[in-house]
Amino acid sequence: MTRDGTVVNPDVYTCRFALAMTESSQVVAARRLATQLATELGFDDTDTGKVALVATEVATNLVKHAVHGQLLIRQRLGATENGIELLALDKGPGMQNVAACLQDGYSTAGSLGTGLGAITRLASFWDIYSTPGPGTALLIRVSQTAPYPAVPKEASQALSVGVGGVCLPKAGEPVSGDAWGVVQQADRCLVMVSDGLGHGLLAADASWEAQRILQAHASYGPVRLLEVMHAALRKTRGAAVAIAELDARQQHVVFAGVGNIAGQIILAHKTHHLISFNGIVGHHMRRIQAFTYPWLADALLILASDGLLTRWNLDAYPGLNVHDPSLIAGLLVRDFARGRDDVTVTVAKAAPVV
């Protein structure tokens, strides 16, 4: 809860658990933590059992096959979904034939070969990207099967942009000082990344306040949002903040940023590097300016805190742009996180995702 009493749930956007998967005892921990989260979210026994089985199989695969395997677990909450997202990342050896690996009976580790097939059957949604050498990313979502209210037509039209992300704290910190947030509307989507000054709880306080302002003043454009955030963050350490307003009807992105948040809009024929100005929201902002960029059917928006190295290039990942935004964000974090800072990567696609 923030200072004015508004409830903000940062767990919706941050990884609740990030587990290194190197030996068999960690499989038990993965199952326990995933089950704990399912119970907290009110899953019934059947759905909790699905989560437990998926977490066990994913973690087991990482222990058997991965190099530097990591399992990220977070919750997904929305008007039509109450679910859990598991993102398995490893750096090798990758899969020669993904389709074959999905078939029951296929194994390279002397097992029965039912793990990956079972995972995809239990999942509400899954996505996988694997290349020999660099490794594999596997995204699994398990949604609660309890009925949800019918979605109004205007709300269903808000799903023209798919957004996902990964937010991890610096090693040894209890929370990330970064945050990201999304507001979906009929023909408009706001995407924000915030990097609180420093690390830990005080940095997180600044980013959570920026997240609250985004939700509370979603009718504002990026420049006005930054102005309101600047006033609200004065009692915090302050933060670097970038906000993109994606307009499907106008087919453009309006972007404004203060501080060291990197941004790109990747199109089939061109990449636009987004422009932010120096400063700290809540302390000193000499200049705020919005820039407009094209937002076409093949567009990707990527925003990243400075916990991500700047030398990444999606050309090194053939075909990755058609995959889920959370999976894209996970691969970038896997390969380019600095390792000594909080890191956040948020990805938005013009096409809807499940």
Descriptive report:
The chain is an alpha+beta fold and 354 residues long. The chain folds into two domains: 10-143, 2-Layer Sandwich (Heat Shock Protein 90), CATH 3.30.565.10; 155-349, 4-Layer Sandwich (Phosphatase 2c, domain 1). The chain has eight helices and 15 strands. The strands form three sheets. A five-stranded antiparallel β-sheet has the order 1-2-3-5-4, with helices on both faces. A hairpin with a 3-residue loop joins strand 7 and strand 8 (188-196). Helix 1 packs antiparallel against helix 2 (45-65) and helix 2 (45-65) packs antiparallel against helix 4. The longest helix has 21 residues, at 45-65. 47% of the residues are buried. The model is unreliable at 1-10, 105-114 and 150-159 (pLDDT under 50).
Write the layout of secondary structure elements.
Elements: E1 17-21, H1 25-40, H2 45-65, E2 69-77, E3 82-90, H3 98-101, H4 115-122, E4 125-131, E5 135-143, H5 153-156, E6 162-168, E7 178-184, E8 188-196, H6 200-216, H7 222-232, E9 239-247, E10 252-258, E11 262-266, E12 271-273, E13 291-294, E14 300-304, H8 325-336, E15 343-349
Antiparallel strand pairs: 1-2, 2-3, 3-5, 4-5, 6-15, 7-8, 8-9, 9-10, 10-13, 11-12, 11-14, 14-15
Helix pairs in contact: 1-2, 2-4, 6-7
